[in-house]
């Protein structure tokens, strides 16, 4: 636990890790890179509008001096304003006015930065913990990617080195005793990826799927977060915009982001409290409206991509035949499966040797380099496994012949 906490702190403080890694897919980057950049840019835009220009302008009575006007603007910005449509009568009761208050516009930059952190957090968790599997996946993927730029001899040597390292990793973390409890644990880990272990070859798989579930939970949770933040039903905001555009040719101002609001303030004069109601303009809501409209459609797009991506990875890990078909496709490139025995051995190679973690590593390498690199790497892994299996099958025969002699 201490190592995990220190690893999280170290990786969070490292710019290269926070910036992102190369051992994920484009849907992950859609969440932790592109969405984060968009949110940070929007936060900077809103912050500039708030602190560089006039965030609020209020129409004050004629008897107000310049000092009173400045005070009114500052007070109304801090104390919140409330929205009453021009066609409605301003309520006399103070409580009804308070129920109409708009409380979010001062905090928009902070909420956008918090959202950016929430989109980045699953990636921070992944980069901080995946090395606990015993494999430096960043280094492996980086080496595989660099093979596309080197000479043919350097490329082949690098792929051989990667294959050699993966072979040692696959053989180092495995169960050498296959009793009933071990087999039960293996089946349980395949059914529930959270029961993962390096020995069972499901550590990386469980962590990878868990991180993808975090991406999905986060992007869906953003709608509920904004519901609470803006005190409105943000989940249907985009649909309302589409319906408004379909029924009106002119852009309609949204009551969620009103530009003209009201503000109540009290000014103490000796023992008397003088209450004023002034009308204010919020130019910043012009930007807030467009930004949150765009974010609604962007979050829907990211959520759809993340859900489809998660389901596709669930399919790949739950159904072992998907593993076998994927591995067989690459091995056939080299015409290395010629007999029925080779096909059976290929199934054993996929299920018992590569297992889920090895399959994941190959998928990640293929997505971040090329299918050709993944095919060459599988060729060397298959060749080494096949030779080792042949030696293992010959040993009993050799022992039997020596005894007979």
Write structural notes for this entry.
- This protein has a three-stranded antiparallel β-sheet, with helices on one face.
- 30% of the residues are buried.
- The chain has helices spanning 2-12, 15-19, 26-51, 66-79, 94-99, 108-129, 137-146, 152-172, 180-191, 203-230, 237-247, 284-318, 320-331, 340-368, 371-404, and strands spanning 57-59, 81-82, 101-102, 260-269, 272-281.
- 68% of the residues lie in helices and 7% in strands.
- It has a domain at 1-126 and 194-318: de novo design (two linked rop proteins) (Up-down Bundle), CATH 1.20.1440.
- It is elongated and about 105 Å long.
- A hairpin with a 2-residue loop joins β4 (260-269) and β5.
- The protein has 15 helices and five strands.
- The chain has 405 residues and is mostly helical.
- Keywords: Cell membrane, Ion channel, Ion transport, Membrane, Transmembrane, Transmembrane helix, Transport.
- Pfam families: Innexin.
- One of its GO terms (cellular component) is gap junction.
| CATH architecture annotation name of the domain at 1-126 and 194-318 | Up-down Bundle
Q: How big is the Rg?
A: 31 Å
What's the helix-strand series? HHHEHEHEHHHHHHEEHHHH
Give the number of DSSP strands. 5
Low-confidence stretches: 1-19
Query: Strand count, sense and closure of the main sheet?
Result: 3 strands, antiparallel
Helix/sheet category:
mainly alpha
